[in-house]
Every structure is written in structure tokens, then in C-alpha cells.
Design goal:
Bound molecules: 1,6-di-O-phosphono-alpha-D-glucopyranose, magnesium ion
Pfam families: Hydrolase (PF00702)
CATH superfamily of the largest domain: HAD superfamily/HAD-like
Enzyme class: isomerase
Helix content: 40-55%
Order of helices and strands: EHHHHHEHEHEHEEH
Shape: globular
GO molecular function: beta-phosphoglucomutase activity; magnesium ion binding; sugar-phosphatase activity
EC number: 5.4.2.6
Structural class: alpha/beta
Cofactor: Mg(2+)
Number of helices: 9
CATH topology of the largest domain: Rossmann fold
Number of domains: 2
Radius of gyration: 17 Å
């Protein structure tokens, strides 16, 4: 029986990918690296450090450690200026209803995100109080597809992985949920999230009845 609902942040609760893209794009322009929206797909669910490594690889560039740190900082400052302006209108369709229903049936609600900015984002959109536990980029040492982020989340609310479901938009996140022995629900396209136990285009497609009757076999 599922009693713990673990949410990824970017691409599941809010669409912050567009803000990551704007900030990475400006940095790539400065480095004279061609960086498109298609390239941005490679960065979804990936840590900040790994994201910059991927962008440098795309441009076949190497930079000094000092510049690497300076660029990471610069990108994050710009990203923070975008999330500063976020509000509840940016919560993705159906998410609020799902969170309210899970609260009603007394399910535990956990965040499992690669972002180090997860808490301020949840605060900005007014969702912080829904969460019984938050695991973010500050708490993990191994990135998705490693299951660490979700296993720590389950531990924080004293749940067994078999009683957890994970909502994820990234392939690496679905793989992490599967490796953790949790039920995996993809939010996005079936063709991309093939390894998920179920896939929905957004939370409006997930009924309350479905959420209540979830089982992990
Ligand atoms: C999110 C995004 C990634 C981003 C990562 C780190 O992960 O999908 O694109 O690189 O967080 O973000 P930050 O620079 O804020 O630490 P998730 O796991 O919420 O999808
Ligand atoms: Mg995501």
C-alpha cells in the first residue's frame, strides 16, 4: 500500500527549466558556445556542476577551476533573480489538487529534487507547508539515476521504499525511483519515460481515486 508520495520539483511541481535555460543561455553566449532549447533537455534533473560540464563539452571548451566556480555563481545569481519573481500561478496543472487530496488521505508528502534552490522555490509558490520532508541538492552526494535522493526522503518520514511512489519528469529520475524499489510515475511523454510504471501528461490526468488506490508490487 502506498502511503508516501515523493515529488520531483522542476518539471513536476513547477516549470523552472525555462529559467535555468535563460541563465545557462546567457552564460553559453558569453563563452561563445551554441546552446539551444534542445540542448537544455540534457540538463533536466542534472546538478548545477554537471550542467556546466555538459555545456562546456558541447562547445569543446575547457576553463580554469576559478572560472568554473565564477560561472556557476554567475548562473545561479541570474537564476535566483528569476525565481524571486515566482508565485502560485506557476504551479503546474493539477498539482495543488493532488497535494490537497494526499493531505486529506493522510499520505506523507516528500520532495526529492536535485536543486539546491528547492526550498526558496516552494516558499515562493506557497507550497512549503505541504511537505513533511524535503530532500534537495544540499542533502545528496550522488545524483539521479542513483536512488539516494529518494531513499533519504523515505527515511526522513520513516517509510519503507515499497510504500513510496515517485513523480518524476526526467528519465534519470524514473531510473532512480525504480532502483529505490519505489513505484514510478512519469509526468511527460510515454515515449521518453518508457521505464516508468505509469505515465501521465500532467496531474490533471491523475484522479484522486488513482492516487488513493496505488499499490507497489
Ligand atoms: C533541477 C533541474 C536541473 C537543475 C538542478 C539543479 O532538478 O531539473 O535542470 O540543474 O535542479 O538546480 P540548482 O542549480 O537550482 O541547484 P529537479 O531534480 O528538481 O528536476
Ligand atoms: Mg525534474
Amino acid at each position: 500500500m502506498i502511503n508516501t508520495y515523493i515529488f520531483d520539483l522542476d518539471g513536476v511541481i513547477v516549470d523552472t527549466a525555462k529559467y535555468h535555460y535563460l541563465a545557462w543561455k546567457n552564460l553559453a553566449d558569453e563563452l561563445e558556445i551554441d546552446f539551444t532549447k534542445e540542448h537544455n533537455e540534457l540538463l533536466k534533473g542534472v546538478s548545477r556542476i554537471r550542467s556546466l560540464e555538459i555545456i562546456l563539452d558541447l562547445g569543446n571548451k575547457t576553463i580554469s577551476d576559478a572560472d568554473f566556480d565564477r560561472f556557476l555563481h554567475k548562473k545561479n545569481e541570474e537564476y535566483l533573480s528569476y525565481i524571486e519573481k515566482m508565485n502560485a500561478s506557476e504551479i503546474l496543472p493539477g498539482v495543488l489538487n493532488a497535494l490537497d487530496f494526499i493531505k486529506k488521505i493522510e499520505g506523507k508528502i516528500v520532495l526529492g529534487s536535485a536543486s539546491k534552490n528547492a526550498k526558496p522555490i516552494l516558499e515562493k509558490v506557497g507550497l512549503l507547508d505541504y511537505f513533511d520532508a524535503i530532500v534537495d541538492g544540499n542533502d545528496v552526494s550522488k545524483a539521479k539515476p542513483d536512488p539516494e535522493v529518494f531513499l533519504i526522503g523515505a527515511e526522513k518520514v520513516k517509510s519503507n521504499p515499497v510504500n513510496c511512489v515517485v513523480f518524476e519528469d526526467a528519465v534519470a529520475g524514473i531510473q532512480a525511483a525504480n532502483s529505490a524499489g519505489m513505484l514510478s510515475i512519469g509526468i511527460g511523454e510515454k515515449e521518453i519515460l518508457k521505464e516508468a510504471d505509469f505515465v501521465f501528461s500532467d496531474f490533471n490526468q491523475i484522479s484522486n481515486e488513482f492516487l488513493e488506490k496505488l499499490e507497489n508490487n
